[in-house]
């Protein structure tokens, strides 16, 4: 195997050496495999990238929207042509099982296919005026420069959710990916540039979190940023929201989740178990939509738990290159440390199920049926915790790892109250054969996305994605809804009357006789 790739930020089409600080992006399944040595930018370089984007944006906005759509479509075709290679890189750099990585790359293709068409549908409207000889119009205008900050658990799909619509709408972008997904980010950016995205219109900046925050603050102060998109933790999302609020900007925030799955008495338990396994343990529980807590009706709790425990014990864990595993390693050592903190929330009143141990999988703490060699990877036992209470930290907080809590309910209202209690509002699922239960659950739940007889995880390119409460600020990604994040409405009124007509004053009126009533003789019987 060749040595690690050396990567630097790309600003205005040119590689820019970093500040001197280097980050080693490692394969979490084999930490000795350094995928890339990443030169991290300083705050000034991030600000410079925003200035380059400002210079490039106006010319890009002049490109007709259908042509910009063709560029986005070409981006999708290039991703499709490199699908297996990109998926293998995702697997190597962030440890996502290869089958999942292929699905993630397909999401980019689907997104680009959708926005190719939207280049011909960036519709405005003609609006009737209250005055004669006057026409009213509305237009979608690009916001300008967008700074996009993404996590690495979906290192290519989530960035594409931002990049495709932002570029289509005529914006320039500064993209700051997760350092631990740096090589994957560079690969995706290369495909975008080869598709025809001009230098300066897409800038790639590698930086750590605090540097990014400092540089973003400076760029906002200097009037170089018009929109911020952030996918990551609720804690950081709050800071970004506060920063943008000082500049009267509303960011697009896609944050964490504590996603519930309610199991009704009439649920198909075998399918519910399958969905819970995928929702909670897929990607090692490191999705924002990962299942957090199963809320099972007391009539089916014991049987569901028995079947689910068996499924978790039998689930293959290990080498993400294998097609058999449910999940591979945690993304990065920092997430392993935070997950171990979450494991400390397991209390004496909890019953722990699902594996032979809790914590990291090692030779001293083995997992039956492990696929591969765990010695050099960030592999953790799946944990199933029964007896969770609404006051438990493990019930209230996102754990971001292969851990699922289980609790019970008696009435649907109680289940909805439990599901809403943590204050997140990203995704929720209910398993039932009763339409009334499904609709009442949908009506009462605070989540932005609801599944009936499906998992808490899953997105489609033409459906709005996003959360409420601690999961986001109500912004939505995907589909036509994301266009509202990357355009602003402009209204135009065109008066061709030859006089100055003043709204609400020179309005055409029609006299009405509002005192008229139908004659009684028409209504009363003869």
> Considering DSSP H and I runs of 4 or more, what fraction of the residues is helical?
25-40%
Walk across the major sheet and give the strand order: 15-16-17-14-13-19-20
Q: Which whole number gives the mean pLDDT? A: 96
Q: For the terminal residues, how far apart are their CA atoms? A: 101 Å
SS elements, strand count: 22
Major beta sheet summary? 7 strands, mixed
**What would you call the shape?**
globular
Radius of gyration: 26 Å
Q: Structural class of the secondary elements?
A: alpha/beta
| Poorly predicted runs | none
Number of helical runs?
A: 16
Strand content: 15-25%
EC number: 1.2.1.3
Pfam families: Aldedh
Protein name: aldehyde dehydrogenase (NAD(+))
InterPro entries: Ald_DH/histidinol_DH, Ald_DH_C, Ald_DH_CS_GLU, Ald_DH_N, Aldehyde_DH_dom, ALDH7A1-like
Strand and helix layout:
Blueprint: E1 5-7, E2 9-11, E3 14-16, E4 22-27, E5 30-39, H1 43-62, H2 65-81, H3 83-94, H4 98-118, E6 125-127, E7 134-142, E8 145-149, H5 157-168, E9 172-176, H6 182-194, E10 202-204, H7 209-221, E11 227-231, H8 234-246, E12 252-254, E13 259-263, H9 269-281, E14 291-297, H10 301-314, H11 333-343, E15 351-353, E16 383-386, H12 393-396, E17 403-409, H13 412-420, E18 424-425, E19 427-431, H14 435-444, E20 449-452, E21 468-469, H15 483-486, E22 487-495, H16 520-523
Parallel strand pairs: 1-5, 8-9, 8-11, 9-10, 11-12, 13-14, 13-19, 14-17, 16-17, 19-20
Antiparallel strand pairs: 2-3, 4-5, 6-7, 7-22, 15-16, 18-21
């Amino acid at each position: 195997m060749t040595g690690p790739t050396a990567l630097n930020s790309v600003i205005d089409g040119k590689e820019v050496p970093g500040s001197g600080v280097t980050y080693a992006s490692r394969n979490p399944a084999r930490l000795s495999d350094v995928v890339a040595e990443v030169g991290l930018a300083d705050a000034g370089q991030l600000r410079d990238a925003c200035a380059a984007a400002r210079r490039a944006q106006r010319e890009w906005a002049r490109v007709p929207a259908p042509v910009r759509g063709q560029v986005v479509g070409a981006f999708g075709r290039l991703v499709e042509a490199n699908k297996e290679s990109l998926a293998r890189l995702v697997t190597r750099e962030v440890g996502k099982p290869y089958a999942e990585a292929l699905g993630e790359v397909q999401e980019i293709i689907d997104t680009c296919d959708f926005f190719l068409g939207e280049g011909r549908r960036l519709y405005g409207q003609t609006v009737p005026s209250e005055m004669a000889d006057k026409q009213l119009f509305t237009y979608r205008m690009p916001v300008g420069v967008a700074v996009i900050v993404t996590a690495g658990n979906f290192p290519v799909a989530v960035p594409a959710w931002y990049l495709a619509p932002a570029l289509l709408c005529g914006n320039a972008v500064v993209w700051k990916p997760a350092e631990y997904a740096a090589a994957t980010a560079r690969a995706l950016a290369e495909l975008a540039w080869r598709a025809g995205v001009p230098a300066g219109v897409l800038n790639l900046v590698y930086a750590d979190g605090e540097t990014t925050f400092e540089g973003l603050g400076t760029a906002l102060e200097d009037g170089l940023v018009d929109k911020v998109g952030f996918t990551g933790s609720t804690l950081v999302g709050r800071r970004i929201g506060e920063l943008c609020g000082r500049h009267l900007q509303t960011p697009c925030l896609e944050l964490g989740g504590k996603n519930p799955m309610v199991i009704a008495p009439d649920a198909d338990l075998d399918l519910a178990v399958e969905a819970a396994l995928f929702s909670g343990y897929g990607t090692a529980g490191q999705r924002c939509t990962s299942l957090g807590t199963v809320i099972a009706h007391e009539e089916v709790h014991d049987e569901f738990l028995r079947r689910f425990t068996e499924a978790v014990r039998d689930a293959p864990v290990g080498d993400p290159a294998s097609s058999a595993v449910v999940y591979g390693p945690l993304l990065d050592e920092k997430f392993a440390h935070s997950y171990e903190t979450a494991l400390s929330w397991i209390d004496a009143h909890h019953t722990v199920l699902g594996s032979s141990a809790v914590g990291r999988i090692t030779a001293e703490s083995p997992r039956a049926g492990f696929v591969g060699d765990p010695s050099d990877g960030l592999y953790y036992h799946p944990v199933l915790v029964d007896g969770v209470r609404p006051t438990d930290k493990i019930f209230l907080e996102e754990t971001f790892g292969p851990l699922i809590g289980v609790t019970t309910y008696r009435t649907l209202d109680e289940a909805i109250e439990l599901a809403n209690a943590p204050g997140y509002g990203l995704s929720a699922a209910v398993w039932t054969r009763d339409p009334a239960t499904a609709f009442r659950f949908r009506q009462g739940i605070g989540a932005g996305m609801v599944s009936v007889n499906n998992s808490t995880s899953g997105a489609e390119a033409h459906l709005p994605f996003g959360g409420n409460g601690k999961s986001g600020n109500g912004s939505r990604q995907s589909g036509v809804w994301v266009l509202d994040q990357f355009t602003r409405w402009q209204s135009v009124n065109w008066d061709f009357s030859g006089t100055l007509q003043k709204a609400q004053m020179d309005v055409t009126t029609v006299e009405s006789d509002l005192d008229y009533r139908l004659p009684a003789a028409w209504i009363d019987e003869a």
